[in-house]
Write a structure and sequence with these properties.
2 domains; about 140 residues; mainly alpha
């Protein structure tokens, strides 16, 4: 069975980097061919934003996940090893702010809310929560229904 990643982009691990636990989960599932077909192991949105902000090579990251199948703390330790033992705190703050503040376009927001039978009254605008709704709807549709 292929799995829908259920870790939100709004979650950070011990390093304090939003979305990193989700990227680790997606890449890990893809490495063992268990990631749901609707999800990329490492896409162009938040995944790419994170890798660029931390100065990580996409292919090296994916190869590490595939070859080592690390736990989440091992993934963070590998990232620190790539960055000389520490992350730039300002880069992390800037990334986290960009992730938390990202807004989908109106059509995407409307489609996700419509799919979840939620009125588009302006209360839910951020992509993190809209993506959560989208994941939860897919989980319910593909796993529970």
């Amino acid at each position: 069975m292929k799995l829908i990643p259920m870790i939100s982009s709004g979650i950070a691990g011990p390093l304090g980097v939003l979305h990193l636990p989700r990227l680790w989960q997606k890449a890990s599932l893809a490495a063992v061919d268990r990631l749901h077909d609707d999800y990329p192991a490492c896409g162009k949105g938040y995944d790419n934003m994170l890798l660029e902000a931390l100065g990580l090579d996409r292919e090296a990251f994916l190869a590490f996940i595939k070859d080592q199948k690390p736990t989440y703390p091992q993934c963070e330790a590998w990232i620190l090893s790539q960055k000389g033992g520490a992350l730039d705190p300002e880069a992390v703050r800037t990334l986290n702010s960009a992730i938390a503040g990202y807004l989908h376009d109106d059509a995407t927001r409307k489609a996700i809310l419509d799919e979840n039978n939620i009125e588009d009254n302006g209360a839910i605008k951020d992509a993190v929560n809209l993506n959560n709704l989208d994941d939860w709807k897919a989980f319910h549709r593909d796993i529970l229904a």
